[in-house]
Amino acid sequence: MKPRYALDKIKFATDAPTFERGIGLYESGKVKDFQENIHGYSAIVLGSKPYNVSISNRYYDQGNCDCYLGENDILCKHMVAVALQAVLGGKKISSEDKKQPSEASCSGKIGKLSKTEISSVKKLITDAMRYIKPYNGPSRVWFQYQDSLSEGCARLSAIVSSLPVSKDTAKILVGMLLRLDKKICGGVDDSDGTVGGFIEETTVVLRKYAELDPKCIEAFEKLRGEETCFGWEDPLLNISTRNRSSNTN
Predict the structure, then answer these.
(1) What three-state secondary structure class fits 129?
(2) Range 34-50 burial, b when 16+ CB lie within 10 A, else e
(3) Which three-class secondary structure state does DSSP give residue 14?
(4) What is the extent of the structural domain holding 166?
(5) pLDDT tens track for 80-102
(6) 16-27 vs 77-88: helix crossing angle, rounded to 10
(7) Which secondary structure element, helix H or strand E, spans residue 46, and what is its range?
(8) In total, how many domains does the chain have?
(9) Of 26-30, 205-209, 238-242, 243-247, where does mean pLDDT reach its minimum?
(10) Is the dihedral of CA 72, 74, 77, 79 positive or negative?
(11) Residue (of 157, 180, 195) closest to 12 by Cα position
(12) In sequence order, what DSSP letters do the residues of 186-213 get, joined into one string?
């Protein structure tokens, strides 16, 4: 039975050190005696000693491992390695799939997307946004909620970092930021600053866009008159205002 999660789920929902170590175990053939059962998968993962690992076929981070972390209900590299085995079946992981962007960054490449590519990017953004939702659960699921916000922002960071610099992509990013702002104002509990931090990172990306291609500044005008949660738009509007003044003189 195939797992209900894919590689991108493991990649974006796992912290970077655990993901990297899980890849290391998987690629070095440390996952032994891998078996499927009705509820998930089990294996022996070789580390400082052999570890008995079992994970669900629905949620890769639910299962058991007799290492120190696993015994304390913390996702460990051994569980990640078994999840990778379940998803990939021994196939190699591409260098791109190994990358976990630590923050949103500018690609530095000027270029345009086709209409089809623009539609695809917008869909990816919408899909990632689903992880960023209002908090209305009991306190016991608080950490799961924060993990969801982190995963959503990680997915968005990967999208932002892959985009070429152009007026069209600047418009996409401005629209994305306004949607995120409405989510924060509409019930997303961002008390740990995960979403706000991503918004700030993306404004830095857009400022870089303005340096590389001044036409991108036109996209910032959509922010004029908007009331945001913490004024993240001010640096972008200042750039737009200066640009209008220089064009007038």
Answers:
(1) helix
(2) beeeeebbbbbbbeeee
(3) coil
(4) 115-248
(5) 999 999 999 999 999 999 988 88
(6) 60
(7) strand 40-46
(8) 2
(9) 243-247
(10) positive
(11) 157
(12) TT---TT-HHHHHHHHHHHHHHHHHHH-
Q: Residue holding tokens 């070429």?
A: 164
Q: Name the pLDDT band for 41 (thresholds 50, 70, 90).
A: very high
Q: Which amino acid is at 44?
A: I
Q: Which amino acid is at 30?
A: K
Determine the average pLDDT of the residues in 202-218.
97
d(CA 149, CA 132): 5
Q: Which of 98, 126, 141 is the last residue of a domain?
A: 98
| Both tokens assigned to 174 | 């401005």
Question: Taking Cα atoms as reference points, which of 143, 146, 213, 220 lies closest to residue 178?
Answer: 220
> What pLDDT sits at residue 140?
74
Tell me what the mean pLDDT of segment 119-135 comes to: 96
Looking at the fold, whether 35 and 68 belong to one and the same domain comes out as yes
Which residue has tokens 């340096």?
A: 211
Q: Does 88 map to a domain?
A: yes
The model's pTM is 0.91
Nearest C-alpha neighbor of 180 from the set 104, 242, 113: 104
Q: How far is CA 60 from the centre of its chain?
A: 17
On the 0-12 / 13-18 / 19+ scale of CB atoms within 10 A, 177 is buried
Residues 57 and 166 in one domain: no
CA proximity to 56, closest of 44, 47, 65: 65
Q: What are phi and psi of 45, to 5 degrees?
A: -110, 125
Give the pLDDT score at 247: 72
